[in-house]
Amino acid sequence: MHPILKPALRRGWRDLNTVQFGVAPAHALVLGPVDTATGSFLNLLDGTRGLPHLREEGKRMGLPDDHVDTLVRRLSRAGLLDDATGGGPAADALRKRSGAMDRLRPDLASLSVVTPEPGDGMRKLAARRAMRVQVRGAGRVGAVLASVLAGAGVGQVDVRDGGLVEPWDVAPGGLPADTVGDRRDAAARRAVRRSAPDRPPRPGRPDEGEPGLSLVVIAPRDGLDAHAPDPVAAEPLVSSGTPHLYAGVIEGTGVVGPLVLPGATACAGCLSLERADRDPTWPRMLAQWRSGRARHVTACDLALSTTVAGLAAAHALAFLDGAAPASAGVRWEASVPGLDWHARPVLPHRTCPCGAGAVDKGEHPAGTREPHDTMAE
User: Fold this and answer.
1) CATH number where 73 lies
2) Is CB count within 10 Å lower at the N or C end of the chain?
């Protein structure tokens, strides 16, 4: 182990004996009491020294026996310490790809903040490289979202869509202007390759088959299909147990979620049944909206669509990294011009064939817990 104080957390002294790690309350921690010698020793925790070397440095500084090990354990328990050599074989392989690693250092720093165990941030970052995500939709939301996922280190990001790129599909970070007239899926895949910090990992041997999908993101160019997703279209994902996340823009409203964990959280069918329960005219209205597709360009504010793509990508990455994002069983909505995001729980419906509502688990949907301040001594 080569201990390193998590570099993403800025360090400052509250007084002569108390040091604060981090600025924002969500991840800031206060450590004390810290004597002058220990405070000086903290500067040596930069990832360049192993524990034997650190023990020798501690002796030269006059620190008591076992003080270094006690301090390292204390910092580790507090979630303030990382391991510059940790993460396992996949992490070691990623470190050797220096160009990719330099591109991903900001992502690694962010992961280190939210992973308490030393080396876990690097382990999660390396694990992204083996994941496969499919994005359905290559418009202003889908293409940008796919590029963000690839840029954040997801190894395989496959974009599915039909037709040719139109001028209104173009967006910064997504499809560039010179792709107008090209096939949407091919143009989006090129954008993904340009955004990736490295070449995607080589596929396995033919006898190993294609890796399964870690996640499907449904980001249709027609935002109605994200706001009111078709249960029939989602049925193969539900029946196969494939996690999927909805994202899109309908008129002037951005939608992120729900993240569907088949059998555990509400699906498109639950959403449709619940809406029909509240509004008996909903199925009739939805049928008209779906059948009477206008031949004009749909509203999709560029700033809003970019925001939706970024938020959906963040929720997707949180899920891929093993967290329970706040879109599991929840839909986030914001409308222009106010852009005030609201969380709207989507509960499993007791009659939906997905089975998520068959048993009352007595739990709140994942991600709906009350926020808390993690500032602690």
Assistant:
1) 3.90.930.60
2) C
E strands, 32-109, are 81-83
Percent of the chain at pLDDT above 70?
91
pLDDT at residue 369 tops 90: no
Rounded CA-CA distance 146/140 in Å is 11
The per-residue pLDDT for 363 is 45
Q: What is the DSSP string of 215-270?
A: EEEE--SSTHHHHS--HHHHHHHHHHT--EEEEEEETTEEEEEEEE-TTTS--HHH
Instruction: Say whether both 174 and 308 belong to one domain.
Output: yes
Global pTM value = 0.88
Number of structural domains (the chain) is: 2
Count the Cβ atoms, other than its own, within 10 Å of residue 279: 11
pLDDT, tens digit, for every residue of 160-174?
999 999 999 999 999
CA distance 287 to 285: 5
Tokens 């524990």, located at residue: 51
Contact (Cβ atoms closer than 8 angstroms) between residue 257 and residue 327: yes
